[in-house]
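Let's practice the habit of predicting before peeking. Look at the sequence and jot down your guess about where helices and strands might fall. Then scroll down.
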Amino acid sequence: MTNVYDNILGLIGNTPLVKLNEVTKEIPATVYAKLESYNPGHSTKDRIALHIIEAAERKGLLKEGSTIVETTSGNTGFSIAMVCIIKGYKCILAVSDKTKKEKIAYLKALGATVYICPANVAADDPRSYYEVAKRISEETPNSIYINQYFNELNIDAHYQSTGPEIWKQTKGKITHLFACTGTGGTLSGSAKFLKEQNPDVKIIGVDASGSILKGFHETGEINKDEIHPYQIEGMGKNLIPGALLFDQIDEFVRVNDEMSAYRTREIALKEAIMGGYTCGAATQGLLQYANTNPFSADDVVVVIFPDHGSRYITKVYSDEWMFEQGFINNGVHNYDEVFKTEIIK
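Done guessing? Here is the structure:
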């Protein structure tokens, strides 16, 4: 039998590359999106959840009835909860209050216990979702803390899978890799593998306006003045993740909420790809980079699209949400006609 699996975990990895034709038509390079939404949990985080949990099993850290605790903006939580169901573990997740209600409902539907923590507090504040997850893990017997931000296995998961897939799919012709940076594992692990195959491959990290990662890469120092609230989930940070290998990244591009939101909607409208907010952010990063770094027709660019747009229907795909953010009818862009909804009375 073909295309038959013992359980849902067998579907993780081997996600497709799909050529972008319209959104990037002004760029002479060939541009592909790596569609991580084709993982069964609909995001790239499936890879690290399975990899880290199975490593813990091999070390004897998990046994029947164990609890897995983690900090998440949503996607990692979905993936961990999915793996926990199949393997018979309990799941406790700490999320920020930036997380939309439908994501929390999704986590609970997969059996996770969810703690909602304030987003706009320092990383070392006891109320932050980092500290809450640590505390819960310490207080819960027979538990492990995934700690994706500082877990080297986060990098290794992508070094072992995502990087080799991209190299094979492009037949070693890749010249540029773009990906958003949150924990840093996706970009770091993929970059490490690709750089080993060809040191000339350019690795571009996409950071959020309001995050410190780009500035730290350029100066080696944390500039707290750069920190301010932003809407894009799952990228950027107000701390320096141990899973982000800055020495593997050639350059960072910083994108804002508004252009990333419009780009996400444009990808759906012109490429028929329902990507998450970070898919738009990664593509916006590519387009900004192209303004000062011209591509050639021989370049092969891969942009990692981390997740699926179904998780953002009441956010970036919502006209009401866009209006609430001040993005629609702001007089700056001409996108409103494109995305207008006609109401018949």
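How did you do? The mean pLDDT is 92.
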